[in-house]
Amino acid sequence: MTNRIGIAVIGAGRWGVHLVRNFLEHPQARLIAVIDPDPESLATLRQRFNFDEQVILATDWSALPPPPELAAVAIATPATTHYALITTALKQGYHVLAEKPLTLALSESQQLCRLAAMQQRQLVVDHTYLFHPAVERGRAVVRSGVLGELRYGYAARTHLGPVRPDVDALWDLAIHDIAIFNTWLGETPTQVQAQGQVWLQTRSPNQDYFPQGLADLVWVTLVYPSGFQASLHLCWLNPDKQRRLGVVGSQGTLVFDELAIEAPLTIQHGQLQPLASNQLSQAELAPTYYTPIEQRREILSLEPGEPLQQVCTHFLDCVRHNIASPISSGLVGAELVRVLNGLTESLNQSGQLVLL
């Protein structure tokens, strides 16, 4: 394909490698450069992908060619570096795809959104789950009313690592489930609560945000304007790997279980029917016992495709047409930062309820 979009990847760590692979293979993109401060990481990348000499591998931002040869950058660096890097990229005229979270501070996220608008450049946040076919299908299911009256939600995201040194388990893991719940419900939380436990990293390099260290375990409660509540269990110190989220209604539960390869999205149909004695009059009817009825499991079909590939395609489309992302714009990223800021405030106050 001619007129491919020139792109550079900033950060060649665990996630940056996946971005490199996707842009390298994408027919609409031309990978121009990979920037990372670690020369060994760059050497490993060159060997893994067999880069030709046209791909710039450098440890410093100054090696990037100017526009129009380079149109966009994908930033996959620690969250504490995002504000400065994204600011520089936007001011130099690049469109930006940023790894989540957009920043750690709401004010910084809002400033980046304003800067992107002023520069007439697109700022897209890599909330990969928003491009997962199960999340897209789940949104339609929740809004169809098939679950009945929505009652509550739950999510568990646990594993034995990877442990991040820049943010805690809340910032690393909760953002996925909050993004999914927000998308499915079509609303954002107005009250939040978080409690956690620190075992591994009692001191953080970013004391302003994490004065008690980086929490390895966090329990979260989200309260939405409709009255819907969701509970999240987040831990990167748990050998029991879980990637499961559910929305419970009066007539069934929608379950997204990422680890259930053959059936990641299902509806568990069923409801309770009250039992009452036929000898009681209508006025005296006071059912005490309930029995489950209409129980069945429905496996929902999904469109094939790698979510990160969909992210890259979506970003390239936003760049090509210079239009804001309707799925994961900087404004969406900023809203998630607002929720996480409230949860961090609650966490630092031993679980006090915080109004957003």
Write structural notes for this entry.
By secondary structure, the chain is an alpha/beta fold. Helices cover 31% and strands 29% of the residues. The strands form 2 sheets. It has a 9-stranded mixed beta sheet. A 6-stranded parallel beta sheet has the order 3-2-1-4-5-6, sandwiched between helices. The longest helix is centred in the last third of the chain and has 19 residues, at 330-348.
Protein traits:
single chain; 356 residues; alpha/beta; 9-stranded mixed beta sheet; 6-stranded parallel beta sheet; 8 helices; 15 strands; 31% helix; 29% strand; globular
Topology:
Blueprint (H helix, E strand, L loop, with lengths): L4 E6 L3 H12 L3 E7 L3 H11 L6 E3 L13 E4 L6 H10 L3 E5 L6 H14 L3 E4 L6 H12 L5 E11 L8 H17 L5 E7 L19 E7 L5 E7 L1 E13 L2 E6 L7 E11 L13 E11 L7 H15 L8 H19 L5 E2 L1
Parallel strand pairs: 1-2, 1-4, 2-3, 4-5, 5-6, 7-10
Antiparallel strand pairs: 7-11, 8-9, 8-15, 9-10, 11-12, 12-13, 13-14
